[in-house]
Write a structure and sequence with these properties.
The chain is mainly alpha-helical. The chain contains six helices and three strands.
């Protein structure tokens, strides 16, 4: 049924035996560099998955230091990052704390912007009220001036008409 040598060769070639060795060594969590960099970028900043391997490994070390883990707990392989369970949980905790810190910073910035907008709205409302008041005052003054000029013109015309009537009545008398 099963040939022990053939099964061993199949397990070896598929990588299962390598995985078992790694897990026995105490590194049950394995991630590709791309997945690690995408998941923990909040801890070290930006490092694209297309960056050279040296930069990717440096980013992994920086994330490891941020989570206060040693190089024994997080190992860098050729294509994967190997972590002990404690290191994985420490990285997850550091990631959550950094996320909370970033969210609080964003919320504070959003609140500041909202406060600025409210202040500007209040200033705009006050400015609009002042402008409206000044414009209404201007309209009232200009209406009063027009009324005063019309009255003065009518008075002048009335005086002119009276003088003309007096001059005509003197002329005919």
């Amino acid at each position: 049924m099963f040939d022990g040598l053939q099964v061993t060769n199949q397990l070896l070639s598929s990588g299962v035996l390598g995985t078992v060795k790694i897990r026995k060594a105490g590194y049950p969590v394995r991630m590709t560099y791309a997945n690690f960099l995408a998941r923990y970028k909040i801890l070290f900043g930006r490092c694209p998955a297309t960056a050279p391997m040296d930069e990717q490994k440096a980013a992994v070390r920086k994330a490891t230091k941020t989570a206060e883990q040693t190089e024994r707990e997080v190992q860098c392989g050729k294509t994967r990052v190997f972590m002990k369970s404690e290191a994985y949980f420490a990285l997850e905790k550091a990631r959550d704390e950094a996320g909370i810190k970033h969210r609080l910073t964003l919320q504070a910035a959003a609140r500041a912007i909202m406060a600025q907008m409210a202040c500007r709205k209040k200033v705009w409302a006050q400015s609009t009220a002042v402008i409206q008041e000044e414009f209404r005052s201007y309209l009232k003054r200009s209406e009063d001036e027009r009324t005063a000029r019309r009255i003065a013109r009518e008075k002048l015309l009335a005086e002119h008409a009276k003088e003309r009537a007096n001059s005509l009545s003197l002329a005919y008398s």
